[in-house]
Amino acid sequence: MLTRDEMLSHLKVRRPIAAPSMLKCDFGNLRREIELLDSAEASLLHLDVMDGHFVPNLSYGPMVIKRLRPLTNTPFDAHLMISEPARYLDEYVNAGCEAITFHLEAMPEPASLLREIRRRGVVAGLAINPGTPFSVAEPFLKECDLFLVMSVNPGFGGQKFIPDVVTKIRDARSLAGDDLIISVDGGIGRSTIAQCAQAGCDIFVAGSSVFDEPCYTAAIAELQQIANGTRSGC
Ligand code: DX5
Ligand code: ZN
User: Fold this and answer.
1) Which residue ranges form the domains of the chain, and what is each CATH number?
2) Ligand 1 mean position, distance from CA 209 (Å)
């Protein structure tokens, strides 16, 4: 497992990163899915945790993540779409997540939890929904290592990208500079990734655009090439 400093430099060195969202994978064969993502050289696995309360869907929690941890050295970013994230922090730290991202809408005063995540040696992330203005998150960016801009309303994979959120990526980058890791999640694919990259995004969470493709290696490589400008999108 990477320490917080190691994780931060891993993310910065590897960017742009297409991070497969483990919501769209084959849950009947998680070991095989992880092997395929390892051979595709995925730099980060995005783990979508949903509690059926903060979002109208259920996925998996720390017990599953803990079982996945020994299967790969690829770092984990847990995206907690849950109410009361502070209450469950220890479980996600102990499950072996190198980054933990929770929602501002679940915790409108997030500074203490962001500090607590950092204190545990984990990269601290804050996510905002499409309907939440950037100005609400702005005062907390200095406490964040990672800022996750949702480009769909959280809860389900396979939704359509909401282009209005791109200005939040641009605003966060110009305000926070190069040190902040910025991630975008929802509807990311060959036709939407370039505009996010141009706005200054580092991590592109990709569910359908990886798992609906026959070859994960080609899908991840192609997304990263479009993001770094060595290939054109569509
Ligand atoms: C949505 C999740 C996403 C989602 C992405 O609530 O946070 O990570 O699985 O899936 P796609 O890429 O299909 O929109
Ligand atoms: Zn997610």
Assistant:
1) 4-232 (3.20.20.70)
2) 10
